[in-house]
Amino acid sequence: PSVPRHTNRLINEKSPYLLQHAHNPVDWYPWGQEAFDRAKKENKLIFLSVGYSTCHWCHVMEEESFKNKEIGEIMNKNFVCIKVDREERPDVDKVYMTFVQATSGGGGWPMSVWLTPDLKPFVGGTYFPPEDGIHRVGFRTVLLRIAEQWKENRDVLLENSQKILEALLHRSEIRVRGQESPPPSKEVMATCFQQLSNSYDEDYGGFSESPKFPTPVNLNFLFTYWALNRTTPEGARALQMALHTLKMMVHGGIHDHIGQGFHRYSTDQHWHVPHFEKMLYDQGQLAATYSRAFQISGDKLFSDVAQDILLYVSRDLSDQAGGFYSAEDADSYPTTTSGEKREGAFCVWTAEEIRALLPDPVEGAAEGTTLGDVFMHHYGVKETGNVSPMKDPHQELKGKNVLIVRCSPELTAAWFGLDPGRLGALLQEGRRRLSAARAQRPRPHLDTKMLAAWNGLMISGFAQAGVALAEQGYVRRAAQAAAFLRRHLFDPASGRLLRSCYQGKDNAVEQSTVPIQGFLEDYVFVIQALFDLYEASLEQTWLEWALQLQHMQDKLFWDPKDFAYFSSEAGDSSLLLRLKDDQDGAEPTANSVTVTNLLRAACYSGHMEWVEKAGQILAAFSERLQKIPITLPEMARATAVFHRTLKQVIICGDPQREDTKEMLRCVHSVFSPNKVLMLADGDSTGFLYRQLPFLASLERKDGKATAYLCSNFTCSLPITSPQELRGMLCP
């Protein structure tokens, strides 16, 4: 590569997204005191640009505007320009995204916001084209207009920014009104189910026309709703909606049939043409959701998909030290000689390429039928490409095919007169060859930043799959990642989590000069992961660490006045608002997950004030839970767990003995949303026995592994038969 003409101070950062902009002609600063001081000293406005390294439109805006020398000059002359990686600093992103959504009715990335020197926003948007068009004002024009306004009407701008801030503070308050108690779970669950049912796509699954996101939070809600209403028609419909959606996603183009894993979302109703980036948080949540679907239905399709996702993550998103990388980009060079990246280039195919790779005649089919014919029929490949021009505004996919399963294996086999058993082997061979061909293409950019929160979601994915699929290798991989977190994203001296670390030179794990402290979501997703890992491995050290982190989370983020947890800690003067998120989206919001975490923590420790906190969070969100629970399906699910009280499933036995293993297998094979598993191994000096003295009174009946179902520390009669235990877990 040629020597870059420009280098700005982002060259000293660790974030792959910031480093992508280190050679722009823009005088970028990272978020921090140096930039704020300069804006104040020179009385300049701040231009804040927020994105992430696998964001397609972020790349477009960089190519068009931030690499443009003239636009760079306008930016440098009039503004102090700051670049933020939203995955490193979700706190900064949330504050200004709240503003952009409130003032423009929409949001997204790249986010472009203009701030006064004291960081108050007054104008914002998302992507701007470089020049004026018929429908949109260009970025150059916006920059010049805002600079002019600052010269001419400074006082008005400052006054407006103050009013905007006050309105935002008012809008973003979530608090308990009066003596509210947690909302009744029956009504919340019923309303959430009804709202999901009304927005459900009967044909293709999912809960919107387009774009369609996987949103595992909706599916997990439906599984819990089914488990608590198994015998009702609504319960049956909830399960059908969840399983149908999961099947349609597997068959669609959102699922990478050749390279495994799932893309971020589908641009159409049929799950066909995706935005091709792959995010770690999706893989973690979907691995857990597909494992649950297998646990409930016994359908091998779902366990195969869970394994497919974990294969992708183990191979492509894993650091050798044990952590997980954040994401893979959507854009890549079509060939090694291409000068320009295209979206989806790594994943799409022409009919001609497939014919050339799969020319073999197929025995038993009509004369002249090739493996290519069978493969193309099954995966909906067309000679002219199978992507509608409507879904391809930049014509990047013209003549290309995104593989999508168009018919069942039985139908494809019948069409060619083949034995269905044989078809599987033919399609597998086709996928293997396409995979080998794809390995020759230039790979998309890999974001090797490692985030505590997303690593937490992925550890849960491995741990839950390990349990549901009875696969110890997955549990070991989860434990390896948890040990990585403890080594690289935890400060034992302060007892606090860190947000991020990075793959550095020679594959060493590096930390930024000033490490970013963990946010609420880092604590919540890591604590959830440690509970999941304890249930899968029964190693008490994970439990002990989880409870320590829960105490730290309470100390740093709890709002004693209005209840629930703030997303970020107090004391950062550069943050205008301390927010509480109130929406479960592509990832669940931290307050939703923490309700179940607190209930689990209380079961493992006997600290009943955690149950009280869980109730206070539900009370703080009560109005939203009763009116529009569809925006908080994970918290709605937690409402049911709260009101039904978690069942402590305690197995007394030696973990090495077969009878204990059989009891554990029985517990693991059942989907029961309100159970907490613990092993009482008889070691009275161990962590659990110290936390829960009542364990000492539980005995092994006739020397056999014995189960007890306890609620509020009152236990059932001893159970020694796995069949009887299963019956009690599935009421």
UniProtKB/TrEMBL annotation:
Single GO biological process annotation from the record: carbohydrate metabolic process
Gene3D superfamilies referenced in this protein's UniProt entry, alphabetically: 1.50.10.10, Glutaredoxin
Alphabetical list of CDD domains matching this protein: SSP411
Spermatogenesis-associated protein 20-like TRX domain sequence ranges: 7-168
Coiled coil: none
Superkingdom, taxonomy of origin: Eukaryota
InterPro entries: 6-hairpin_glycosidase_sf (IPR008928), 6hp_glycosidase-like_sf (IPR012341), Ssp411 (IPR024705), Ssp411-like_TRX (IPR004879), Thioredoxin-like_sf (IPR036249)
Any single Pfam family the record assigns to this protein: Thioredox_DsbH
PANTHER family linked: SPERMATOGENESIS-ASSOCIATED PROTEIN 20
Protein's name in the database: SPT20 protein
Gene name as annotated: Spata20
